Amino acid sequence: MLSDLLPPALVALLLDSILQTATMVGVAALLSTLIGLPLGVLLVVTGTGQFLERPALNRVIGTVVNLIRSTPFIILMVAIIPLTRLLAGTTVGTAAAIVPLTIAITPLYARLAEAAMREVDQSLIEAAQAMGATPLQIIWKVLLPEALPGILAGQTVTLVSLVGYSAMAGTVGGGGLGDLGIRFGYQRFMPEVMVAVVIVLVIIVQSIQVAGDWAARTVNHRVARSRLVARSHDQT
């Protein structure tokens, strides 16, 4: 289908751009999960009335997260150019784009993870505390497993947002599909390239959404079954 829409040279460029976008999204998603999930946990467990209540720490983390989230992505990319150059050694290209992508998306994922964990039944946490569970055990064996469906749903939203951010990064030298669409579809007046880029982005987003919804439903069923098993053991 692509060969009918574009000449072979542009098809090769499109495939290369897809690889660049996948690299940016994949690495940024991994880094944002490694950073954002612990931040989300801290936002929950250090809140008022929680088992690791630390109001000052909670306010500091929440303020930093909100400040980054309130900054438009394009402005954030420009504002952290010195940091990008320090970490990536350059300010253009796929590697450089990963830095602002990670910084921009981590607060969003942290808030989504926090929201999912706040939905966990407080009585489960209180029961774990009554049985002498340590804070780390409560986090690993109660909070995260119970909130896993919501966390996966948040991961889906994060990935979809990253695809959009990566396209914006391409407009300022970040590479990927956004760069291809701007350079050829807009600047060189080749609407067929823009159409191909839009089609590919729609397919990527829809694939992520379908896979994420399936994963969240699957995990939700497993959590529900584990609850039923636990209740049956309690009754016996």
UniProtKB/TrEMBL annotation:
Q: How does it sit in the membrane?
A: Multi-pass membrane protein
Q: Print the keywords alphabetically.
A: Cell membrane, Membrane, Transmembrane, Transmembrane helix, Transport
Q: Which subcellular locations apply to this protein?
A: Cell membrane
**What Gene3D superfamilies does the record tag this protein with?**
MetI-like
Record flagged with keyword Metal-binding: no
Q: Which residues form the ABC transmembrane type-1 domain?
A: 18-212
Reply yes or no: does the keyword Transport apply: yes
What Pfam families does the record tag this protein with? Answer: BPD_transp_1
Provide the transmembrane region boundaries. 20-45, 57-81, 87-110, 193-212
- NCBIfam families with a match to the protein in the record: PRK10782.1 (NF008049)
Q: Which family does it belong to?
A: Belongs to the binding-protein-dependent transport system permease family.
Q: What is this protein called?
A: D-methionine transport system permease protein
